Amino acid sequence: MPVPQGARHAGATRVTLLTEGTYPHSHGGVSVWCDQLVQGMPDLAFDVIAVTGTGREPVVWDLPAHVTGVLSVPMWGAPPEGRPPRGRSRNRLAAAYERFLTALLDPRAEDGFAPALYVLAQAASDGTLSPFLRADRAIAILTALWTRPGLAVREAQPTLHDALTATALLEHALRPLAAPAPETGVAHAVSGGVAVLPGLAALERHGVPLLLTEHGVYLRERYLGYRTAPYRWPVKAVILGFFRLLARESYRRAALITPGNRYNRLWEEEGGADPESIRTVYNGVDPAAFPAAGPEPDTPTLSWAGRVDPIKDLETLIRAFALVRAELPHARLRLFGGTPRGGEAYRERCEALAAELGHADAVTFEGRVDDIKDAYAAGNVVMLSSISEGFPFTLIEAMSCGRATVSTDVGGVREAVGDTGLVVPPRDPQAMASAALELLGDADRRRAMGEAARLRVIEQFTLRQTIDTFRSVYLELAHPEQESPAMTTTVRISAPAVHGTGSLAL
Fold first, then answer.
1. Does residue 499 fall inside a structural domain?
2. Which residue of 67, 72, 255, 390 pairs with 215 in a disulfide if CB–CB is 3.0 to 4.6 A?
3. Residues 47 and 109 placed together within one structural domain of the fold
4. In what residue span(s) does the DUF3492 domain sit (predicted)?
5. CB 391 within 8 A of CB 408
6. Half-sphere exposure (CA, 13 Å, Cβ side) for 312?
7. With contact defined as beta carbons under 8 Å apart, do 122 and 85 qualify?
8. Considering 114, 143, 172, which residue would you say is the last residue of a domain?
9. Where do the DSSP E strands lie in 327-369?
10. How many angstroms separate the CA atoms of 132 and 178, rounded?
C-alpha cells in the first residue's frame, strides 16, 4: 500500500529506489545501505517501490521528509486487481506468453524473451496479466509447450501438477510489473531479480534510466536456493530460466551497473553486461560511528552478526566452533541478529545442531542488539561464514571497530579484508576452526590485524566516498546534458582475469 511522506521537492532530482525484501520494511545490510543513501542526500527526492511478502509488513525505518512516497508491492498477498482479457486482447497476450515461455525453455528462442516481457508488462499495467495467469489457458499453453520434441525439459516428463506450480510461481514473480512505473528521474534497483521489473517497465514506457546495484549476485543466489527447493526439474527449468533471462535483460538495458565488488562484475559481464556500463562502487561506513571497540573479553569468544538465514551458513560456523572448543573448552560463540519471518525453522535447526554436538551451553543466539558495535566488541575475533555475499557491512563495520576477522572467501570479502584478516573457503569447518584458533592463540597478531583493518576502512571504505559517488551517478543519469564534475574523479575498476569461469546457462 502507498505510504505518503513529506511534501514534494519541486525541481529536485527524483530517485525511485526499487527494493525486494529490504528497505524500508526490514533490517539488514542492504537496508542499511539504502538508508545511508537516503539520509546522505537530503537535496534529492526519493520514492520507494518495495517488493514485499504480504504487503502487511510495517515500515521499520524512520523515513526523512524527502522520501515522498513508499509503495509496497506484495508478491504473496492478494493478487493485483483486474479482469481477465477478452477477445483479441486475450489472444495477443496468449501469443506473447507462449513466446515468453518458449524463451525460458528453448535456448534457440531466447531473443523472444524481452519483446514478450514488455507485452506482459503492458498487460500487468492494464490489470489483465495476473487474471490471465490464474486462468486455464495459461496452464494449457505451458503443458502444450514443454512436451514439444527437442526440448530438454520434455525428458523429465512434466506433469499437470508441475504446470500448475510453475505457472503460479511465475504469476507471483511477475506481480511487480503491475506497480505504477516511475515516469521521471532515475529508477535505482538495489538488487537484481523481480525488483528490477518496475524499472524495466519505466525504461520501456517512459525512457527513465535504470541504475542497477547488486550487493550479492541475485542469479547465483537463486541457483543456490533452488538447488534444494521442493520442486521437480521441469518447474526449476521454467523459474531459473526466467531469472537467468531477466538478469540478462537487466544487464543489457541498465544505463549503469554499480556492483559492490569486482566478483559481482565477473557475473555481470558473463551475463551479458557491457563492461563499459559497469562501475564498481564499494560500500562504506562512517569510521566515527564505528570506533575502535576497546578491550577484548577475558573468555575466548567468537562473535557473529547478521540475519539468521541459510545463506549465512551458521551450521558451518557451529561445526567450526565445536572444533575450536575441543582445543579451548572455555570458548564461547555469540550470535547476534534477528531471524526473518519464515526463517524460524532454520534457527531451530542450528540450535539443534549445537545441542547435538554438545555445545548448546556455549552457543548463544542473542537476537537483535540495540547497538551493533556491541556485537563486534563481544568477540576476540569476529566471524563471517556466508556462502554468498556482496561487500558485507558486518565485515567492514567489524574492521572499523578494530577487530580481527575470519571470513569465507565469497563475493567481495577478499577485496574488503586484504591482508588484515584471515579468509577461508566456504563450507569448510576445519579451515574456519584452524583460522579462529590461530588468532585466538596470538593476542599480538589480533591487535595488529585489528589496527590495520581500521586503517584500511578509513583509507578505502568510508561512507562519504560512497554517498558522493552515488550523488554524482544520479545527477549524471537524470541530467545527461550536464556534465557532473565529480564524475571525472570516479574510477572505473577493471575486472581481473577470469580463470575457469563457467557458463551461466541453465
1. no
2. 390
3. no
4. 14-276
5. no
6. 25
7. no
8. 172
9. 332-336, 363-365
10. 13
Name residue 63's amino acid.
L
Contact 274, 257 (CB under 8 A): no
User: How do the pLDDT tens digits run along the chain, 506 residues long?
Assistant: 455 554 445 567 999 999 999 999 998 889 999 999 999 999 999 999 999 999 999 999 999 999 999 999 999 988 888 999 999 999 999 999 999 999 999 999 999 999 999 999 999 999 999 999 999 999 999 999 999 999 999 999 999 999 999 999 999 999 999 999 999 999 999 999 999 999 999 999 999 999 999 887 888 889 888 888 899 999 999 999 999 999 999 999 999 999 988 888 888 998 889 999 999 999 999 999 999 999 999 999 999 999 999 999 999 999 999 999 999 999 999 999 999 878 899 999 999 999 999 999 999 999 999 999 999 999 999 999 999 888 888 999 999 999 999 999 998 899 999 999 999 999 999 999 999 999 999 999 999 999 999 999 999 999 999 999 999 999 999 988 665 444 433 333 333 333 233 333 33
Residue 294 lies in a domain: no
List the CATH number of the domain containing 15: 3.40.50.2000
Tell the residue number behind the cell numbers 518496475, with chain if given: 198
In this structure, how many other beta carbons lie within 10 angstroms of the beta carbon of residue 477? 21
Give the chain's domain count. Answer: 3
Bridge-based pairing of strands 67-74 and 2-4 is antiparallel
Q: Are residues 422 and 314 in the same domain?
A: yes
Q: Are residues 76 and 192 in the same domain?
A: yes
Return the CA Rg of the chain. Answer: 24
How far is residue 184's CA from residue 376's CA, in Å, rounded to a whole number? 42
Are 312 and 435 members of one domain?
yes
Contact between 285 and 397 (Cβ < 8 Å): yes
Say how many residues make up the chain.
Answer: 506
The answer to whether position 256 is within a domain reads yes
List the beta bridge partners of residue 408: 424
Task: Please indicate, yes or no, whether residues 336 and 399 belong to a single structural domain of this protein.
Answer: yes
- Is residue 96 one of the residues assigned to a domain? yes
Question: Are 337 and 207 members of one domain?
Answer: no
Residues 6 or more apart whose CB falls under 8 angstroms from that of 263 comprise 217, 410, 411, 412, 415
Nearest to 206 by CA among 107, 122, 145: 122
Query: Residue 179 and residue 196: Cα distance in Å, rounded?
Result: 11
Same structural domain for residues 67 and 182? Answer: yes
Domain span at residue 104 reads 87-172
d(CA 233, CA 152): 11
Cα 259 from Cα 276, distance rounded (Å):
13
Residue closest to 171 by CA, chosen among 116, 111, 131? 131
Measured CA to CA, the distance from residue 403 to residue 253 in angstroms comes to: 41
Alpha-carbon distance of 506 to 226, in angstroms, equals 12
Report whether 84 contacts 105 (CB < 8 A).
no
